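Try it yourself: sequence plus 4'-deoxy-4'-aminopyridoxal-5'-phosphate, in.
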Amino acid sequence: MSFPIDKIRQLFPILHQEVHGKPLIYFDNAATTQKPKAVIDSLNGYYLHDNANIHRGAHALADRSTRYFEDTRVAVQHFINAKESAEIIFTKGTTESINLVAYTFGRKFINQGDEIIISTLEHHSNIVPWQLLCEEKGAILKVIPINDAGEILFEEFEKLLSPKTKLVSVVHASNALGTINPVERMIEAAHAVGAKVLLDGAQSTSHLEIDVQKLDCDFLALSAHKLYGPTGLGVLYGKREILESMPPFQGGGEMIKEVSFEKTTFNDIPFKFEAGTPNIGDVIAFKYALDFIREIGKPQIKEHEDGLLAYANELLLPIKGFIPVGTAAEKVSVLSFNIHGMHPFDVGVMLDARGIAVRTGHHCTQPLMKRLGLEGTVRASFAVYNSKSEIEQLAEGVARIARIKNK
Ligand code: PMP
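Structure, out:
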């Protein structure tokens, strides 16, 4: 059966508009994906019919909201194949999920002289929290180098591992280049020296099948807004025994069992890490995004997106002045590039004039850009609703722009 692209596009009202008099072509999916109508309807429906605070209410609306909220937790559990829904913690996003681990696991288990390993490919949100922690604790941050294609050097990673390594925190798929890291092998090697592993799944979770039990990662961070869900919402997955061993993140309502002025006891996981009123409406709507992905099927989505990336490479690589950035063998559907003689931002503005939305700049990966000797790139990132004809228009736009400086 061919991929039902027209049917899928119908589910995204935002795609059917013009910008600068041209049909919108949305290729900024690594920054955030658009939302299917079911997600938008759920947000509306929640505030029209169900709005109530959860877990404590004795009335019908509170009961309903609590049930829907907890249904999403179970949907996330199934989405990443966690053992139990208690291992799913709702956060504001990948950034907060990583900070939560740094603040709680890090503060308790990482001490002076201990080592944390990240990679050159990391987003700032998987660099800065560890720098802050290392500074506070006198721990050491080590960085896995990459080759020019944007792939980590596995042997160098192995050399960095030692009994001093307490945590390996790596991106599963790079937002700047699309590189998919060999995380199965990395997790195995890290566990062999007794280190825990956190995967930054901000980019991988929308493209790849994720099975946290099979991967055996200790933590996984993701953002709902990159998965066709609402902004301001993310997830931290953690193995039960590790989450239970960690102190709470923030103090407040919901995360406690009993409070007295002398002593407070904490709630069980996941509530121990969810202080205060959560992002209820967005959590409830997120389930509809996960249903959308499940109904199409991750392997089908991956095949479609791989096809788009291959087609983009076929059309763009021959263009004079086109410089691909990040040519890893294993990639998600991210096409990073430059045009010889042009600043990435100018290319972005010229594509925007053609209705094509891309991202330009360092993509919150300044150390990676420095390693590649670049100020930034133009990034076109493809999602389930993008089509081959949109890729053709990108190629046509890039060819015209490149001709300005590459006659
Ligand atoms: N890691 C990666 C690889 C990302 O692409 C992003 C978002 N650009 C983040 C972390 C941070 O995600 P958020 O802004 O949703 O917290």
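One thing you can check immediately is this: The chain has a mean pLDDT of 97.
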